Amino acid sequence: MGANGQEQQGTGIKRPPRLGEEVYNAIYAQLMSLKIPPGGRISVDNLVRELGVSQTPIREALSRLEAQGLVLKTHLVGYSAASQMDRKRFEQLYELRMLLEPYAAAQAAQHMSDAAVANLKRLAGEMEPTGKEDPRSAYSRFAQRDSEFHDLVAQGAGNELVQDSLARLHIHVHLFRLFYHSLATSEASIEHGEIIAAIDARNAVAAEKAMRVHIEKSKARFIHAVISAD
Amino acid sequence: MGANGQEQQGTGIKRPPRLGEEVYNAIYAQLMSLKIPPGGRISVDNLVRELGVSQTPIREALSRLEAQGLVLKTHLVGYSAASQMDRKRFEQLYELRMLLEPYAAAQAAQHMSDAAVANLKRLAGEMEPTGKEDPRSAYSRFAQRDSEFHDLVAQGAGNELVQDSLARLHIHVHLFRLFYHSLATSEASIEHGEIIAAIDARNAVAAEKAMRVHIEKSKARFIHAVISAD
DNA sequence: CGATATAAAATCCTATCGGATATATTATTG
DNA sequence: CAATAATATATCCGATAGGATTTTATATCG
């Protein structure tokens, strides 16, 4: 089972696209872009009119989003976007990352294929801040790549359950919805580089430590925006 | 957000029951009881006839089960129960448990309320093998209590994300579907007692170690049944 | 007898409809 | 004027019907 449920079938048989899948992606994009604000209500009928499909695929997509914790459902009331993380949830998220991701980095250093490492390097290259760009869309792009980076490391660890558990957190979604105004990407690129170097050197201990440092610094970069909540 | 999505609303307002929820529980029970075998196809129309409800709530329940990884969906083909764990997945499951549950036990020793500890003791008492009982239903009962026990410890750790990540694995479902013929409950009861004692003594180090030992022994008890797969 | 092509059945996927409930608005009353 | 009650609207929940696709069964042919 893949991380995002969008893995390709090995056989080349092309199946017609599922409408529910596109609806899922559409809603997901609206959550990422903050078009649907935290806590905002999500009306099925509105989506019917907006997307031009019937209720069935929309409800199917919303059920999946609900199971993933991205939207909430109240019986006979409707769906609504998950509220922003409070301080407590933020701490919990990084606590959990700290349990899984350094381990994943260490495993990746031992098991990752050379091709996958090359993939990692390529991706890191694309994350470099490109001089002049709209800061907001730049951070959006960075968040996307950053998510892929961490997912690749988790995938390299070879434990699909760990990879899935991390993917299900939708870390980049929640963080972006908190910090869309932020920027701070150059520091993270450096830290990513150190992680890649350790993995490339097949140094598990160094990879684990580099990931640990990266997550700690990431938390320090972001925590200022959430101090409001107790 | 609760672990199973079945938490009660704090307010006493009674909402009419959701049909989709009962359908979910019905299918879940059929998975636990192996009435739907691993990999077995799940026909929506059959469920319509069997449960006497329309397709809508059934598809809603199946979507949630799909998001939780308990059933698979193939476009234009239908739903099917998740296949049995193979050796690799079994190893991954215990690897992940080893990352999260000892940590949860240590946190529980520090943060769990006395009332919750009492709850833990009560539950452990109910898990004692009760002399004469049908071995199979005895193990079914044990699996249920065991799941609650570990969930309570995770809850006591105070990190809902860790608790949810563990709950989403549906450990007891997958293990039961592998080892429904097994029994081995008395040993686990002893190990549970040691975990409780450490938590009760507020000894985080001992609780972490006791949980670690318990998971390792649990793995050793079950691994024989999965050696077939490479 | 085996393989292929055709036909039939089962199933899923989407769309539409009616009933039930919660929410918002308005009107009434102390 | 504030608070309550009644109404109106919007929305969800569940049921049903039709179209599309896959799968299975059957028949035909080499």
TrEMBL record, chains A, B:
Q: Fetch the Gene3D superfamilies from UniProt.
A: GntR ligand-binding domain-like (1.20.120.530), Winged helix-like DNA-binding domain superfamily/Winged helix DNA-binding domain (1.10.10.10)
Pfam families in UniProt: FCD (PF07729), GntR (PF00392)
- Stored InterPro entries: AsnC-type_HTH_dom, GntR_C, TF_FadR/GntR_C, Tscrpt_reg_HTH_GntR, WH-like_DNA-bd_sf, WH_DNA-bd_sf
Q: Which residues form the HTH gntR-type domain?
A: 17-84
For molecular function, the Gene Ontology terms on record are: DNA-binding transcription factor activity; sequence-specific DNA binding
Keyword set for this entry?
Answer: DNA-binding, Transcription, Transcription regulation
The protein, known as: GntR family transcriptional regulator
